Amino acid sequence: MTEEGLKPRKDLLDIESLDLEEIEFLLKTAGPFKELFSRSVKKVPALRGKTVLTLFYEPSTRTRTSFEIAANRLSADVTNFGVSTSSVVKGESILDTVDTLQAMRTDYIVIRHGDSGIPGLVAKHTRASVLNAGDGYHAHPTQALLDAFTLREVYPESAGKRVLIVGDILHSRVARSTSIILNKLGVEVSVLGPGSLVPPARHTFMHAFTNWGDALDWQPHVVYLLRVQLERQQEQFFPSLSEYHGVYGLTNRRVEILRQKGIYLMHPGPVNRGVEIADDAMKYERSLINQQVENGIAVRMAALYWLRPGTDERGGDS
Ligand code: CP
């Protein structure tokens, strides 16, 4: 057991496997870490002497940088593994790469990969703690945690609130992980998007709307926009980007409705201006997008602080 009475864990791979107590612990722990950000010294010694390695097989701005800052603020030593300049391009397998990193006594591996399940495979193969930074369509657990943390900042009593997720549900690991954590916290979640991007298997516990009018009649407290993931689409899911914007995007006219109703706006980033969101909507005063980015550091500090690598004599379960 940890000091907090929780069973220690080695890895953070998804939201499904976390129980409510663990989620509440992570959200509660992120709060004091965020308070550090306004101090002149933003560091604590919690992970002094530990090594954190970021291993990203897909591009990232927010997740990689915030994990790096989070690890630095916990006083860990951080190394970014540059996949495109490594022996991966000579054909080295992912497990051989992980063996090599293990030999260097890495304590934490933060991994993003285009294939679902790779972080889980790596976790079984290494004594280091593995933190999933996004795998295929499967999971993005720290995004879900930062989304829940951000929602709690504006609605401390978030149970019973309503969140409308809009866009490309089919390809979105964010939609999957964030809807699951919100559901566990008692938040109502619905989805809106073209039928081709909102398959029934992806929203088993959520209502699916097909137009903004009906979705806004549901009176959401937050509209959570998703990027249309063109890089994952092998076929055409809607006629054109401009048509998508007109039918499903947050247009200037729809922002005005959000403003009148006092609805908050969230987006995991990166944003495609002119597709899921109009240029001017980025200036919406109830946008929580930058708050989400800042909170990403705090929840990632909490996650790194919580996990127990197998390299630690107190080691945790997967
Ligand atoms: N939200 C998110 O995962 O952003 P990045 O791809 O920039 O990490």
Can you walk through the features of this model?
The chain is of the alpha/beta class and 318 residues long. Helix content is 36%, strand content 14%. The protein has helices spanning 20-36, 62-73, 94-103, 118-125, 141-154, 173-184, 212-217, 241-248, 252-261, 289-306, and strands at residues 51-56, 77-81, 108-113, 129-135, 162-166, 188-192, 207-209, 222-225, 264-266. Helix 4 links the parallel strand 3 and strand 4 (129-135). Helix 5 (141-154) crosses helix 6 and helix 5 (141-154) packs across helix 10 (289-306). The longest helix has 18 residues, at 289-306. The protein is globular, with a radius of gyration of 20 Å. Residues 60-63, 134, 143, 268-270 line the site of phosphoric acid mono(formamide)ester.
Could you provide a short overview of the structure?
The chain is α/β, with parallel strands linked by helices and 318 residues long. Helix content is 36%, strand content 14%.
